Amino acid sequence: TDDLSPYDAVGRAVGTAGSAVVFAGLTVVTALLALLTLRIPFVTTMALTAASTVLLAVAISVTALPALLGLVGDRIVGSRSRVAGTRRRGQHLVAARWIAATTRRPILTIGSVAIALGVLAVGAAGLRLGMPDGGMAAGGSPQRVNYDATSEAFGLGANAPLVVTVRHTDGSGFDTKELLGRAEELAGVDGVSSARFMGANQTRTLAIYQVTPDLGPTDPATEALVHRLRSTSLAGVMPLGVTGLTAINIDLSQVLGEAIPVYIGVVVVLSLVILLLVFRSLLVPVVATGGFLLSIGATLGLVTRAFGDARFTGLVGVDRTGPILSFLPIMATGILYGLAMDYQVFLATSMREAYIHGAPARQAVAAGFRHASRVVVAAAAIMVAVFGGFVLGEDTTIRQFGFALAVGILLDAFLIRMTLMPAVLHLAGERAWWLPRALDRVLPRVDIEGDRLVRAERSALTRTSADLGSGHGAGL
């Protein structure tokens, strides 16, 4: 501002906006570390790596960046830009028009957003998890050529061999005739194209067979076959062991699918607690968290349509349908939750700050939106562009991740944070910031807006002015 030196301005920015940056970073880290509850090694590795990266970025933002700004000083903004910025201050015409349109008929806005996202989320009911195989690789790629050639020559199941182990219940060994006979028994199981003996241990107490399914590795029938083999009872034999890459991928997808509700539940609880501490409001956490659930549901619905429905695969450059990457829903939920809470903090903090400083509740919503919306738009646009670029790649896994994150950010930032939330807060009025007195006394105070810092600065300036006035008086 005009009355602060560059060094003082940097200090105030770190003490105010810096607090929001730290909190936003911690929400991302919290969402990523919640992945540790899944106890899946490779997911744990990805979560720890991503969380470390976010912590490093936050540390740079509140240490290295202010230091660099301090070195640059006045040169960071030219005199002409400073004058032009002063003239334009407060003139956010696009944001003003957006918030006016959003809050003019808040009930209509809320209903429209909720219905639109609800309809998109219906597609998530058909979500089928799996590990994309060579059949979903880009046309002409070595993986695709090999997959198609193998399928044409030996059948689709040749790309999905299963390894089946057989042991006697009494631990005795197999003779040669029984080893061959067991292969015929396995070949007779519904859904099996062929079975052949691969080998046995030295004592012949463990026999290994290769079982070829009728269909490919990501086909639902192959998944059903894996479960059928494990439940098949052969005379005198222990329950069959079924493994191999195809079976491992099926098991992993099942584990991750079962973990999705648990992980989302953890995220919801954390979101409610964190937002309650920051905004000291009952409505804001509920709206923010409920909106996130709507956006993640719509995102998964669109991903399912784009990659699992032949009518829409062309939109993402895929010529075959297939399953959704098994760990995409959980990873996308964690990443999108962190970004959603970032945008929530930027917007709602600005609104609450205006309210605390005396603006009526509905005016505070508009004022806070005009002040912070440009940051959210810029941040969301950058992320959508980055992740959207992944859709142009040839790898199906990268395409799915890029599409899910780009669409998720687009829906959450513009429909939830910048449309639904302001409409709900405007409709609620003063009740938007209500908190029971008993809860208000118990909760610790988190000054994310930096209001205490600003008050301390003003108090110091007042004391300095008073001291100067006393000095002049004494001199006279």
Structure characteristics:
single chain, about 475 residues, mainly alpha, four-stranded antiparallel β-sheet, two-stranded parallel sheet, 17 helices, 6 strands, about 65% helix, elongated
What's the arrangement of secondary structure elements?
Layout: H1 6-15, H2 17-33, H3 41-62, H4 64-72, H5 79-88, H6 93-104, H7 106-121, E1 129-130, H8 142-154, E2 162-166, H9 176-187, E3 192-200, E4 207-213, H10 220-231, E5 241-243, H11 245-279, H12 283-308, E6 324-325, H13 328-356, H14 361-390, H15 396-428, H16 437-442, H17 451-475
Parallel strand pairs: 1-6
Antiparallel strand pairs: 2-4, 2-5, 3-4
Helix pairs in contact: 2-3, 2-13, 6-14, 6-15, 7-12, 7-15, 11-12, 11-13, 12-13, 12-15, 13-14, 13-15, 14-15
Report on the structure:
The chain has 476 residues and is mainly α. Helix content is 67%, strand content 6%. The chain has 17 helices and six strands. The chain has helices spanning 6-15, 17-33, 41-62, 64-72, 79-88, 93-104, 106-121, 142-154, 176-187, 220-231, 245-279, 283-308, 328-356, 361-390, 396-428, 437-442, 451-475, and strands at residues 129-130, 162-166, 192-200, 207-213, 241-243, 324-325. The strands form two sheets. Strands 3-4-2-5 form a four-stranded antiparallel β-sheet. A two-stranded parallel ribbon has the order 1-6. A hairpin with a 6-residue loop joins strand 3 and strand 4. Helix 2 (17-33) runs antiparallel to helix 3 (41-62) and helix 12 (283-308) packs antiparallel against helix 13. The longest helix has 35 residues, at 245-279. The model has no long low-confidence stretch (mean pLDDT 86).
